[in-house]
Amino acid sequence: MADVSRFGIEPIDTHYTRPGHAAAHLLMEGDQVAVVDCGTTLAVPLIVEALTRRNLELAQVSAIIATHIHLDHAGGAGALLAQCPHATLYVHHVGAAHLIDPAKLSNAATSIYGEELFGNRYGVIVPAPAERVVAVEDSFELQLAGRVLRFYDTPGHARHHCCIWDEKSRGVFAGDAFGIGYKELRSTEKDEPFLFPTSSPAAFDPAAMETSIMKMMELAPDYLYITHYGPVVAAPAAVARLLDQVRGFAALLPLLPELSNDQLAARVFAIISEAYMDYLGNEAPPAELGELLTEDVDLNAQGIEIWGKRMWKNG
Ligand SMILES: [Zn+2]
After folding, report:
1. Domain containing 167: what range?
2. pLDDT band for position 78 (cuts 50, 70, 90)
3. How far is the CA of 51 from the centre of ligand 1 (A)?
4. Cβ neighbours for 149, distance < 8 A, ≥ 6 positions apart
5. Is the pLDDT assigned to residue 290 strictly greater than 80?
């Protein structure tokens, strides 16, 4: 993992489903703090503890930023706001209403996971007071103690996704727009991370994903701060490999009507694992590779199927 603590940026493990799965990022500048992708409501005590450990007060948190409103990124935004008296929540304009009134998010997730698993994973979603929410548009600028953060509209993973450019560290808070890069998948020999796309339901759009990635790469970032998991160097080779996989997903379109769910998941696994083997070269993959990727492969296959139906319907 890239160490960017000299820029005041540190990942905090939110323990979403397991350690090392999802990171909130603290961004510290002067006497102010921003929390990017705070995680679920259940992660809020971990964020509070991380701030306390750094002798930071909750009153110093001036910004809570959601890259998008998926619950592993922003489910806890309302609960964290309630603890941080001077914080404002910044979220993409398409998603803002759903953090103000999270009923739809709760209901959708409850219908997928069932009440019990939903509670165990996400806790209770606390509404964010509308007057403390800023619905951001493309090119919106936020200043954290004078440090400029610029928001970019980056659809493809979700329509309510934005990436945040931090000029000072030349890094992008990337949410899920640059895929997933688990620490367990990293080479022991190179700096470059392995990234694979996340096409989870229900608004995957491979063309938009590619455009969003290119848009952020035009800024020539040194680092990507990705939720799953942590700061990595923005190696062009890693991004090229990520784009190849996005194109691989898109190329499944003509086959989708014929493929069963299992067959589609197998195709998705093959695309990711082939890219991964290419990345590893002579290094051995972790023994638990299949297990590590199972949930993401399933979610990716579901998202690709939904995208495919949309494409077929629109001709
Ligand atoms: Zn997401």
Report:
1. 5-188+199-235
2. very high
3. 25
4. 27, 34, 65, 141, 142, 143, 164, 165, 166
5. yes
| 60 C-alpha to ligand 1 centroid (Å) | 27
In this prediction, residue 60 has a pLDDT band, given cuts at 50, 70 and 90, of: very high
Cα separation, 17 vs 233, in Å, equals 25
Would you say residue 183 lies in a domain?
yes
Say which amino acid occupies 23: A
What is the 161 CA–ligand 1 centroid distance (Å)? Answer: 8
- How many Å lie between the centroid of ligand 1 and the Cα of residue 282? 32
Provide the domain count of the chain: 1
The answer to whether residue 286 sits within a structural domain is no
Residue 315: pLDDT band (50, 70, 90) is: confident
Q: Is the pTM of this model over 0.85?
A: yes
What is the distance in A from the centroid of ligand 1 to the CA of 18?
17
Give 55 Cα–ligand 1 centroid separation in angstroms: 31
d(CA 271, CA 253): 14
User: Quick one: 222 exposed, middle or buried, by C-beta within 10 A (0-12, 13-18, 19+)?
Assistant: middle
Half-sphere exposure of residue 180, counting CA atoms within 13 Å on the CB side?
22
Q: Can you read off the two tokens belonging to residue 209?
A: 């994903």
Distance 200 CA to ligand 1 centre (A): 7
In 3D space, the residue among 285, 297, 202 whose CA is nearest the CA of residue 245 turns out to be: 297
**CATH number, domain with residue 210:** 3.60.15.10
CA distance 55 to 274: 45
Question: How close is the Cα of 108 to the center of ligand 1, in Å?
Answer: 14
How far does residue 114's CA lie from ligand 1's centre (Å)?
A: 19
The Cα–Cα gap between 216 and 258 comes to 35
pLDDT at 12: 98
Distance 259 CA to ligand 1 centre (A): 25
pLDDT at 113 over 90: no
| 175 CA → ligand 1 middle, Å | 7
